[in-house]
Amino acid sequence: MYFINKNFIILFSSIILAAALLIAAESDFKNLQTAKNIAVYEGLIINRIDVAGETRLTKEQIINNFPIKTGSKFSRIEINEAIKKLFDTQLFDRVSVDANRDEKGVVLNIIVAERFIIKDIQYVGNKRLSRTALNDAIKPIMKLGDPYMPQKLNEAVNAIITNYQDKGYLKAYVEPKVTENAGTSDVVIQMDIVEGNEVKVSSIRFHGNTYFSANELKRQMSTKENGFLTLGKFNEFKFEDDKAKVVKYYADRGYYRAKVDNVKFTYQWRDPEIKNEQDLIIDIYITEGDKYYFGDIGFKGNFIISSDNIQKDIKSKKGALYNYTYHITDFQGIQNKYSERGYIFRQVIPVINVNEENKIVSIMYDIVENDKAHIENITITGNTKTKDFVIERYVDIKPGEIFNTAKIQRVQEKLYNTQFFDNINIGVKPGTAEGLMELNLNVSEGKTAMVSGGGGFSTSSGFKIFASIRENNFLGRGLQLGLSGELGQQQKRIAVNFAEPYLLNLPIYIGVDLSYFNEGVNTGYRIGTDQFGIPKYSYYTRHGFEGIVRLGYYFADYYSTFITFDTIVQQYQQWHDQGANGNSPNYVLSDIKKYLIHKVNKKNGSFERWESDWFTTFIISYSLLRDSRNDYLNPTRGSFLRGMIDLYFGHTQLTRLNLTGFLAVPATEWLSFAFYGEIGQIIATPGLSLRNDADVLYYLNPFEDIRGWDTSAYTVFKKNRGLPTYDMKGENGSTDSWSYGRAKVRFFAELRIPIIPKTLGFVTFLDAGQLWMPASSGWNQDGDAHSYPSQFMNIKDMFDPSQYIYSVGFGVRLTIPIFNVRFYIAKRFVYNKDNVGFGKGLKDFEGDTFTPLGAWLGRGWGIAFTMNHPFY
Predict the structure, then answer these.
(1) pLDDT tens-place string over residues 382-429
(2) How far apart are CA 660 and CA 677, in angstroms?
(3) Is 669 exposed, middle or buried (0-12, 13-18, 19+ CB in 10 A)?
(4) In this structure, which CATH number among 2.60.40.1230, 3.40.1440.10, 3.40.50.720, 3.10.20.310 belongs to the domain 374-445?
(5) pTM of the entire predicted model
(6) For helices 324-339 and 405-417, angle between their N-to-C axes, nearest 10 degrees
């Protein structure tokens, strides 16, 4: 009986437990159906999306910002990503997603809590800074209409305080107050400002410095004492950098242990009775220590790149004074060597061992090379107008390639040089597997259509007005289309051009230019001065039509080659106000003068001009160039090298050879050096005689080539030294000499200091140049000009410094795509290798007098000014 009852009880209990489990299971199933666990909906179709909690935004706006749409399959991963996307809009404090099942699929319910919107920002207590100035200070952080975020409020407060400190109010204090309006979901922010008194740095005093003077150390700092040219403003963040600059100055000169021990700030009233302004005295206490020297510089762990390969670029040399900059440059250089080979996961650890007894700093670079990184995928974002395939033309990196930082940087530079984009950010993130990287090119498009117009004055062409309409990215396909016109005293031109830089999306360039021109050619022969004392030169006019077809091909990384077919139909003229008179043309090269055979009078019978017949010249040009400049308009790094051959046929018959080179070298983060060289030579085309080379003879432009010189002065220079000139038959059988050339050599060196980066800069320069002519060989068949043999320039003349003219000076360069201005103050001088009556060595040019500018600066100084002249 006992066992039966016991078994019965166990059986009964089991039945009860099973029933309870079934009930519980049924309950859990119902819970799953009511979305208490959304995992059960994985893969089901989303039938509807609802929104709850919205106040200011509409349901439609929230649903439009939600990446998941009706009809897509339910995925927990995608829902989590979609929630993040809504948070990224910064419009919401909280976002959650609930799900329920209906007969057709799944219904999503987006539950949001919106952020309040900034309705107004008020300022109380601001007297020194206007509301506009304060709004500008915090604009990058917050502005009216933005979602309110407490963390950004703190950033805005710091921005206001920094702005006051920059103006000298070091004790400015800001207390923010936020008033919320739940009914309208907005806030009003009030900034209560205590400005304090103006404080300026009156004195910076150094203590403990024995090796370097206080003035020398002050020059390293951006914080300056209040004075005639400085305002004595103090900025806490800049001063922290200043301390590091002072320490670095010591460390670059061997003082490895130098440090700033302490800084003491002392405030005192500038006028104790008024007490409205305070001065700040800064005492900086320095420990200099001893000089240290480099010891052994070694490498370990490097197998891919040999130690010899690394060592050849190491600036730190054993036995030399320790130099912190050299040490950092070496460290970064080793990293770059690996990055350029795809080893971006490399680790370079400088292990420094200091021998205090001998003051020796030895460095062992411990290198962990790791594996190469490869590019898995490249994405392009941010472009709304420019087609992806246009951007991809300049991205010569493909998925699967080794990750090369130098190559990636070059892509960025090439995209900037298209002038399609204001900003190009290259983002890198890990790919789907170890060693793979995702590359993202995020571009910010600028204005590619340019409409420009204006006027100005150029010393080489007088007054003019110009207008241009140009589209550099027509239809977003990279096509170039332009129409331009120019009307001036000496230059008139109207032109239309079209170019396809990548024909059929291949690296093939094709372009067509059509133009009408009317150009006054300044002969450089001075015929007097105007009422203002400005020199007047003789001119002749060439006008006509020109058609150009260009074909080009890009290859390798920096190389391209072009062939150009140019046809010019033109006529020569010399007008009564250009030096001509009723008897004959005057003051022009005989090779031009001989064609001016038709006299044209005005309606009243008075003389107007001499003109020629119409002539046609065909030019075939071939060029090969290498261009690695980081910016076409304002290069600070890179080089340009071009070789060019021009073959002239028809009216003008000759060959021109030109070699041009440019190099930009960065000196610091801001400063850069620029070097330019040009060599040109005219010779006869094989099998043909030289004919009418006056159009293409070389001359030195006094406003861009050798700044400050003109052709008349250069002619005097050459005649005084017995150098060959271009002779022509003048009036009454006389012979005149002009400084034109069959060969040209020119150089310049510049230090460029930006004022507004990429736009406006200060320049100091040194120019040198010469023109070369072979000796004349008698009268030619026309009887009015000497003929010159077809010769190459003598090498010894190229390297003879006494045959060059020179100038040195300073000025400004305004360089933007549609408008270029150059204004220079230049001093010209010469070099005499022998005592020829002018002295020996570097001298003032003997033909110089004291110009009005020279009354202040000295003999030989002048002004050079030009507009819209292309210049490297």
Answers:
(1) 888 888 888 888 888 888 888 888 888 888 888 888 888 888 888 888
(2) 6
(3) exposed
(4) 3.10.20.310
(5) 0.61
(6) 90
